[in-house]
Amino acid sequence: MYDDTLNVWTNGHHVGYLWRNERNEMGFQYAKEWLENAVRFPISKTLPLKVEAYEPGADNRVAHHYFANLLPEANSRIRVCREKKISVDNDFELLRAIGGECAGALSIQGDEPHEVESHYRQLSDTDLTELLVKRNPLAVVKEGDNPPRLSLAGAQDKAPVKYQDGIFYIPLDNAISTHILKYQLRDINHVPANETITMWTADELKLGICGIDYYTHGDESFTLSKRYDRVLTTDGLVRLHQEDFCQASGRASSNKYEHEGGPSFAECLQLVREHSTQPLKDIPRLIQWQVFNYLVGNADAHAKNLSFLYGLDNTTSLSPFYDLIAIHAWPSHVFNHELALSIGGESNIHKIKRAHWERLADECEISFKLFDTAITRLSEDIIDAFERAQNRFETEHGKYPAFQQIRKALIKNQKLLKRAFE
Question: Between the CA atoms of 341, 343, 349 and 353, what dihedral angle is there, to the nearest 10 degrees?
Answer without folding.
Answer: 180
